[in-house]
Design a protein that fits this description.
11 helices, globular
Length: 214
């Protein structure tokens, strides 16, 4: 009598950098051509693109991007932001808080810009004249945070400790991630139940991006 074969256990994706490069979507918002974009593409970050300005906070290029580089000069005009690019940065972080936003500028406007809320809410800041490898470092850093198993586990640990005061070991997190991955249910309700947390929306956001990058 033939025995039923068990389905092979799903294995959590443990992605190499080459695979992460294919998943990460990087968008530059800049009214001028920027050589760094081609340099990133040549380095394997193929999903790197540019728009001249934002026409909507929900336009498809912005919705799909994981990392946004914003030239704070010369953009934000179409949406009539008083502070142009810096106003756009604030609006984007409010609308899409999980996206990484890096601001850059070719000019130093001194202390006025330094104390602007748009600088505070951005995840990082670069000079437009910075060496291209500095842009690449940030792209790799934030892409690994989103799509690397090791980084995902560390972000979940940090988030649970900060929001709930609970401490989880890596093995515990992997065990729970396997349960979620098995059922393909990445909802906040499912994640909250599996991790035994009251409202794990922040944790669910990390897991959704990692397990279902789209």
């Amino acid at each position: 009598m033939l025995k039923f074969l068990r389905k092979p256990k799903l294995k959590l994706p443990d992605r190499e950098l080459s695979e992460i490069k294919q998943l990460a979507k990087i968008l530059f918002i800049d009214d001028k051509k920027f050589p760094v974009i081609d340099i990133l593409k040549d380095a394997g970050w193929l999903n790197t693109s540019r728009i001249r300005d934002a026409e909507s906070l929900d336009q498809i290029e912005i919705r799909e991007a994981h990392i946004l580089f914003i030239d704070i000069q010369g953009i934000g005009k179409k949406l009539k932001f008083k502070d142009e690019g810096l106003g756009l940065v604030i609006a984007l972080k409010e609308k899409h808080p999980t996206k990484k936003v890096i601001v850059y500028s070719a000019e130093d406007q001194g202390h006025v810009e330094a104390f602007h809320k748009g600088i505070d809410v951005a995840d990082n800041r670069l000079s437009k004249l910075a060496d291209p490898y500095q842009f690449q470092i940030l792209v790799e850093k934030y892409s690994k945070e989103a799509f690397s198993l090791k980084e995902c586990i560390e972000r979940i640990k940090t988030t649970i400790l900060a929001e709930f005061g609970d401490s989880f070991k890596s093995d515990e997190i992997i065990h729970r991630l396997n349960k979620i991955y098995k059922h393909k249910d990445y909802s906040t309700e499912q994640v909250s139940r599996i991790f035994n947390l009251s409202n794990a929306s922040s944790v669910a956001t990390i897991i959704q991006l990692f397990l279902n990058p789209g």
